[in-house]
Structures are given as structure tokens and as C-alpha cells.
């Protein structure tokens, strides 16, 4: 409280005392008016008491007396308003002596207030109350005449000021009550509002300003060129700025409708400084709870938003850097592995050529086997890369995961070895899933091998299936939409993973195994397959406590699960003569190999190098029993478009797609029409022959 406010309060107290004296004189002079004088006196005292009890600042009157420590060495609290207990934290202070209340601090207080009593000079200071742990801002002045030995003390608790984060909340929490009081005490409101750094506006239900602080007026002038004042119609102020006028009307209409909200927006005339502000709107209500207007606290948050933008840009730059690092790691790993494989293939072929020239035919099979082995490893590496990138060609079918797991139990048991105890727990009534069963088998085996490697001294592996209902919260935790899923989890009792290892577990070529014992593509392949199937993978692990890897797949609702038999063998069926196959592929080597395989098995073969050439053949009267086409074809027509165009005139035509890289959009989002199948490159010639025989014989 400022010195001006102290003097004003002192003057009001003196006026009330003078008025009381006059009333007492009137009472003595005219007994007939005694009743009215008593009433007036009571009203005056009530006004004084209301003021005394209503002010927000703590207020008390202390009276000095002579004590054991000398003249005027102690004082007693003779009056105190309710705010005293609120700010000082000391209830029922009236009648208490300072040397009894705070004996250790009493000397300092007596010296301070005693000086005010002796000199009549008011003081203003801050002091911590050690007994209560509070900070107070105090002002004291002498109550005249000096013979009363009284000093009035006003103070307020400024502990919140010492806590920067709580200071703003203190203003927000108390502003509404102070604004309500401003209907009767507008000057008090102005003093409070002027003391804040926020831009404050208060309007009535007709959009008229009933209060605005100086900071808001200056900001209006700076960004709009307007100078609002109390009594102005806030919307009409913007008549020269129709776009801003519409925005102001809309936002204040929400507040006057009773909505309390926070909004961030850019404001200001386009020809002036435009800034971003955080606007906090609240309803202004009277003592009965009826809305009589609304008020706004506005804060300039331009620099905060710019800093956030800079932070986002820095994060994006970091993400790009991490992506480039991952690409570098990926390409380096690919180059390393493929160079090893190509060395084996090229070297074996060169040695094969040399031995054929030398006539040493007994060694030919060894080099052929070496080249074939390296080729198969290269094919497996390609499939893993495609699985990681979610670009592999899948053949999803309704699958009973329980049956698939039980069918693999013996294979897994032999793979992990006798030192590992294997336990399989399948859920009753497990829902079917729409997945590529062969890829799921590969993923499960990969997880079990990783679990085995995490337990070099032996341990336990548990394979478990379950139905899962994911609500919004649990779906968000697993990065999946809410719904029904099946889970397939592999748990080990091994070494566990650190958080850093978990974070990078699905990165390509990331491995914790020694050099030569792992490619680092296993988990990335599992992750890519599951994500491509619409599911998710989650790792739950603690160092030294083991690891659980859970695969989540959406529940499949259409039809019963078509159980895949993992042990079935696809033997090549005997070829039939009189059948014609159209082969469309832009790669001459692939086309030549396919034609020779089919020709050896008695099929008549027609070849085409691109989509338009193949379509011309299909639109002729030639007999064609099967179309074999690559998915990616030149000439403006891919393999899927060729097949669809062919079926327009040959609706029963069977189609076999051969591809090593297939976008879901090309293959119809992963779902093929009846009579269509996919064979993934690279493939064995016997697998091609068996698939052709299967399709034409069916």
C-alpha cells in the first residue's frame, strides 16, 4: 500500500472520529434528537467497521505501554481485521502482547513501531515473520493524538511474490472477487489492475468497457492505433478495422455468453506491429452469482511462440540428421553384406567357367552349390530389407494363430536346444488374424532364436497367445487404434535390455551380438512384417530380469480361419500339354528362364516385354490359360492394370504375379481377387513350376 493510500486511510479515520464527536455534541445539545444521533452514530460505526473488515490488506492498531524492559517497551494489539489473520497467519491476535507472541523478535518490532510513535513519521518496509515463515509488506503510521500511544499497521502477505510461478495464479484467483467489488469501489479496482503487467479489460453485457489498465491502453495504441477508455463500446472502437472488429466481437461474445476459455491468436493492424497474445477470458459475476460482464487477461507470447518454433525446427533438423545417419548405416550394411554375397557368386561362376575349360567336371557341382547358396542368402537379405521397409509382398489369409504356434512347437524346441525349457500357453477361443502365415512363422522363430541367444546359460521361453480389447488409453500406449486384437508374446528369462537397446532394437543392422553372429535385420524384419499387417510390436524388458516381445494383430471378423499347415510340401504337379501361358516381363533374363521352365514342362508359351504388348495378345483370339506378369512394367501399364484389363474380356483368366517389390496399391491393398496369386522374386524354378501347375490344374 502506497503512502498516498495510507494518508487517505488516515484522513478517513480522522473524519469518522470528527463525525462521531459532532454526533455526540448534538446528542448532548438536543435530547430530542438523541435517537437519530445514535442511529447515525451506529451507521457511521458500521461503515467504519465494514471498511475495517473488508479491505484486503491486514490492518491492526497496537497500543504501547510501559513494561519490564522500560517505558513504552511493549505493545498490545487492540484491534485487528480478519485480513490480519489471513496475511500474518496469527489468529485471535487482539489482546496479545508482542513480547508474549514472539519474544525473540519483539525487540525489533518495538523499535520500529516505537520510532513511528515518537516521531510521527510513517514507515514502509518488508519483513519476514520467522515464527510463521511468511513475508509481509508493511506500512505504519501514528494514530493521533500521540497521547493515545497507538500506531496503525497495514500489511499484506507477499510470500507469493517470492514464488514467481505462484504469483500469476494469485492474481488470476483473486481478480474476479476484486472486479465484483469494483462496482462499488472502482478506484480500488483501478489500483489493483494498474499494478499488473497483464493487459486487462473488463466489459459489461453491452460490450462497454468498465475497466481497462494502462498497459492495455498502450498496447491498443501500439498495435491498432486506438486509445480506448472506460465507457467506450469495445466493438465500435474497431469500425475503421472491420476484420479486427469481427474477431473482437466473436471472442467477447463467447465470454459474455458465460464461456471461460483461453485462446492464442495474432492481433494488430497489418500496417503496424502484429503480435501473438494468450487471451484468458472469464465471466464477471455479482454477489448473487449473476453474470454482469466478462474480463480478459492478455499476455504477449510472441517471443515464447518464436522460441517454440525455433525448438521445433531444431528438433526437425535433428530428426533429419538421424534419418540420414540411419540411411548411411543401412546402405553401409547392405553394401557390406551384398559385396560378400556377390563375391561368392561371381567367384564361383568364374571358377566354374575355368573348370569347364579345363575339363575338370568333377568340381562343377561344388561351385554351383556355392553360387546357389550365396544367391539364396542374398534373396533372404532382400526379403528382410523389404520386411523392414514394409514393402514385401504378403499373402495374408485368415489364420488360426493357436494352431500355427502348436504346429511350430517341435521346430522351435529343436532350434533352441535342450538347455532351454519351452512352454506354450494358448488362449481358448482365440480370434483369427489376417496374416501371411509363413511370415508369421518366420517372425516367431526369429523371436525364439533371439530369446535363446539372450540365455547362454539356459533358461525358459514362454510363447503365449491372448485376445486383447484395447481402449483409447491402452491403444495409445501401443500406438494402435482402439479395438480388438490378438497378441502373440515370446518371453525369456535372459539378460534383458537397457532402455537404449530397446530404443534401437528395430533399427536396421543394429545388433548386440558379436561380429559375425548376427546381421541386425531380424527384429527389423519382424517389425516391418507386423506393421505391414496392420499390427504393432512392443518390447517389455528389465535388465537382468528377461524380455517379453509382443506382436499385436487386428482381429479378423470375416469367415473362419483358414489353417495353414506349416509342414505341407508343394510338390510340382505334372504338366499337361495343350495349355498356353502368356509371360510378360521387361527383364529378358527373367523372361528367358520362365519360358524355358514352362517349355520343359510341356506348356505353350507366348512372351511380351511390356504391358501394352501383353494386352494386345490378350485382346486377340489366342488361347491363354494363365497370365504370368511382373508387377512393375514399363510402357505406362503395370502388371495389376494389365491383369484388370485382361479380365474385362477374359473374366476367368488366372493370373500369377511375380514381383520382388510390390506396393499395396498395385496389388489392391494386399487383397487379390479369386484366381490371382503372387510369387515373390527370387524364386526356385521348381517353386514356379509347382505354382503354375497348381493354378492351371485347379
What's the helix and strand layout?
Blueprint: H1 3-29, H2 34-54, E1 58-67, E2 70-80, H3 82-88, H4 98-101, H5 106-119, E3 123-129, E4 134-143, E5 150-157, H6 164-181, H7 186-194, E6 199-204, E7 209-212, H8 214-223, H9 242-256, E8 261-267, E9 275-285, E10 291-300, H10 302-358, H11 364-388, E11 397-399, H12 401-416, E12 420-425, E13 433-435, H13 437-453, E14 459-470, H14 472-477, E15 483-492, H15 499-504, H16 522-532, E16 536-542, E17 546-554, E18 580-584, H17 588-600, E19 604-608, H18 611-618, E20 626-630, H19 639-649, E21 654-659, E22 676-680, H20 685-697
Parallel strand pairs: 12-14, 18-19, 18-20, 20-21, 21-22
Antiparallel strand pairs: 1-2, 1-5, 3-4, 4-5, 6-7, 6-10, 8-9, 9-10, 11-13, 14-15, 15-17, 16-17
